[in-house]
Design brief:
It is a single chain. This protein has 669 residues and is an alpha+beta fold. It folds into 3 domains: 218 residues, Beta-galactosidase, Chain A, domain 5, CATH 2.70.98; 287 residues, TIM Barrel (Alpha-Beta Barrel), CATH 3.20.20; 76 residues, Immunoglobulin-like. It is built from 11 helices and 36 strands. Strands 6, 7, 8, 9, 12, 13, 15, 16, 20 and 21 form a 10-stranded antiparallel sheet that branches. Strands 1-2-3-4-11-18-17-14 form an 8-stranded antiparallel sheet, with no helix packed on it. A 7-stranded parallel sheet has the order 27-26-25-24-23-22-28. The longest helix has 18 residues. It is globular, with a radius of gyration of 25 Å. The N terminus is likely disordered. The structure holds 1-deoxynojirimycin and calcium ion. The site of 1-deoxynojirimycin has 8 residues, from loops.
Length: 669
Amino acid sequence: MKLPVFITLTLASVLPLCAKQAPAELTSPDGRNRITFSLDRQGRPSYEVVRDRSALISRSALGFTANGGLDLAGKYRLDSISFDSRDEYWTQPWGENKHMREHYNEMAVNLSNASTRLTVRFRAFDDGIGFRYEYSTAAADSIFVTDELTEFNFATDGTSWSIPANADTYELLYRGQPLSAIDNANTPMTFKTDSGIYGSIHEAALYDFPEMTLTHTSGPRFKATLTPWPDGIMARTGSSFRTSWRTIQTGDKAVDLINSGLILNLNPPCRLESTDWIEPMKYIGIWWGMHTGIQSWVMGDRHGATTENAKKYIDFAAANGIRGVLFEGWNEGWQNWGGSQVFDYVRAFDDFDIREVTDYAREHGVTVIGHHETGANMPFYESTMDEAYSWYHDLGINNVKTGYAGGVPGGHSHHGQYGVRHYQKVLELAASKHMTINAHEPIKDTGIRRTWPNMMSREGARGMEWNAWSEGNPPSHHVTLPFTRLLVGPMDYTPGTFDILLENTKTHPDFKAWNGNPSIPSRVNTTLAKQLADWVILYSPVQMASDLIEHYDGHPAFQFFRDFDADCDWSRAIDGEPGEFVVIVRRADDTFFLGAATDESARTVAVGLDFLEPYRAYKAVIYADAPDADWKTNPTAYTITEKVVTASDSFDIRMAAGGGQAITFKKIK
Ligand code: NOJ
Ligand code: CA
């Protein structure tokens, strides 16, 4: 059903203004989010945001600075303002929710000064706001942007969850701290204001421009900061440029942010002619052995990706209904990792017969996931990737995990304009060959999967690997990610390590500490039941069971992964608070999967089952922490129980400290 759209206008639909710079307003369809645009006497643009009657963002500057006498921030006069609105339904080939509603009101403020024209385009949704800059100049062929002036001046202080700004990595621990105590932050930067508004600042549809981070100015106030080129210029553009959307998600509850479609709705529709070749899947891989130090990426006695091991993984995948198998360390060049960072993407190591492996996989109904570690040598990768992707394609390898561990040559950074362009080139090349990408050490997600749905997943936060060779990810990490990193797109966290204390690998005769400090007591900082829950909570359309396959032997809990479907149709975050706990349910066809997880504190959360289809009976298979489980002292104790339930039932979900619970609900025919 299409609902009527109302625009609250304080001005006529297209209005020229000059002398008295009356503020222009835009409200969301539900009337709760209101943006006000103004120009001051010096022609400097600014905006404010109010939610209900509470000021969220008080007057905050808009604009940029540039070289060459171009004024991108002041002496503007208002030429006109135009309004628009949209209320449409759209579908995505895969995603947390296949059916989406795009419902917003828009205000385009058209400005000009002696050197430039600027449209500031605002969109107000019920679940947040976005605005972007559209600049053009007749005074120059190119624009060298030197700074972004956009401010996010919170009207009140509040709590926040973020990682520090960094031009090269997002693999950092989250900090929960007052807004006013943040030095700088990467986005998404999630907050709860003292007036009770939940929200998150990020950007949507980032193309050919550096990423935006936030720098503290004073009190709870921030200014946008761009990641520069090596010479200090922030962005190099032609005579016109359009930024990504600067976004502020809003909600009454923390889980409203997870259930929001704002980021995807601010991205343009799909550009691919067909998408039937894009396949969400579960996967396993030759991977964890290298991180835990019992196997190597390079060829030698401890080499992981041998033809023989590959076949074992393929057999396991085929026997357990798992579609994908990843092999890392399959190609020549791993000897150069941490050195020249030059890899050969068309030559397998001698003990990995790639044709034999891909043929064997095909015969067993399994697909091989390719791997390109680039060591962040983007220039070299670009020089060889045409051939590399064609070669994979000819072998029938159509899903590629990429990796960018290391520094980018030439002083470039992962998150600058050079990096943003690079990741996009790879994605478009892959799309042209009907291949998908799962990028590690990526540029952050800004929802471009709507336009390029072959962009399946990314890392872009501390994933499972950190548990192998560092102090690991604390129990609060997995219940912070859904309210921060995961707000903006899927994450290839790779949950599913059952050897929680790494006992089997640390005592393995081939064990060699290879990264981090061997005296750090590495382990997985959760219970085993929470590992199952993370498969549901940490959404990825390509979802990995990350442990060595032998570690699933004798574990009835692995049945949860066998039953799990990475290709869900619908999702809902039911309850949670950032850094404390979360409960998320997803539906794939007729089956529901629920994941609940907690931080260091044990807790019980009451959950109504009203998401189930009414008047139908379901068999619930409940994978819970055992009564004496505890992430520190007894992490692997779990119970599996079954119950027949209907939508009118409710569950008390009991979780041990650092624990969780996973439930499969299968419809009884
Ligand atoms: C870092 C990635 O996150 C990890 O998954 C991969 O195994 C290593 N780089 C090596 O490519
Ligand atoms: Ca990584």
